[in-house]
Amino acid sequence: MARLLYQWPSDNIAVPGTVATPSTADTAYPIANLFDSNPAKPFKFTATTGNIVFDFGTAKQVDVFAIINHNLTAGLEVRLQGNSADSWATPPLNELITIGAADKDGFRPNPWKDLTGIGSRTYRYWRLIVVGANAANVAIGDVWFGGTKRSLVHNISWGFQEGIERTLIEHETDYYVSTIYDLGVKVRTLAGEVETSDAGLTAIREWWDACKGRVLSTLIVPDPATDPAMLVRWAEMRRVDKREFKNVNMLDLAWREVSRGLVL
């Protein structure tokens, strides 16, 4: 299992006010929705294909890119491109973003891309383009342009817990006859323990402080070799670090996904 990848909130250079120009936009779902850390409130195209050009003002390095909540069809050709100019005939960075299959309940995994192994990844202009025709007009909850790739110094120990929370309304009679209304929401959780050095402890403390506890959302990829990205918050506003011995620390870590709301 590869070490958990994470991002500080400030690593995301795609912030409110980012200049982003879509090829088409549904006025009811504006481009500003991509930068509000609320993936349940999406941006939408008025077409099944389209692109968004991001202008960061100056050249910015991007190590990690992720799409948080979307309605993209599995296997659809979606690309992240980068260039020093707003020109896209032959962009020097042109990476395929793999769109995975939806779960049986319709929720789709959050695709992401590690750009650290591809060479140059510092550009002023970036473009997200949906090349193929989607099954419906394209909808995207949030985007993440991570300027710094971070990984745990020591990984979460085996025995960690992956959870799912679903919500419903249930009315039960005195005869135990139930009427159930599915609210259609699914939230993932991750909890585990890590044994780490003092350097690892310091890194986790800095991450916690950068998030202000549960206040700010953060991006994680539990196993970068196999898992999709998760936009999460720390599960608790309280943290306890157990100092076992010199340079040996036992920490309980837990996160809860930021709700994606209903299936897009």
Explain this structure to me?
The chain has one helix and 17 strands. Strand 14 (218-221) and strand 15 form a beta hairpin. The protein folds into two domains: 5-151, Jelly Rolls (Sandwich), CATH 2.60.120; 161-257, no CATH class. The strands form three sheets. Strands 1, 11, 12, 13, 14, 15, 16 and 17 form an eight-stranded antiparallel beta sheet that branches. It has a five-stranded antiparallel beta sheet with strand order 2-4-9-6-7, with no helix packed on it. It has a four-stranded antiparallel beta sheet with strand order 3-10-5-8, with no helix packed on it. With 264 residues, the chain is mainly β. Helices cover 5% and strands 44% of the residues.
Distance between the termini: 31 Å
Query: Measured on Cα atoms, how large is the radius of gyration?
Result: 20 Å
Shape: globular
Mean pLDDT: 97
The succession of helices and strands, N to C, reads EEEEEEEEEEEEEHEEEE
Helix content: under 10%
Q: Might you state the CATH topology name of the largest domain? A: Jelly Rolls
For the record, the CATH class of the largest domain is: Mainly Beta
Largest sheet: 8 strands, antiparallel
Structural class: mainly beta
Tally of contiguous helical segments: 1
Query: In percent terms, what proportion of residues is strand?
Result: 35-45%
As residue ranges, the low-confidence spans are none
Total separate domains: 2
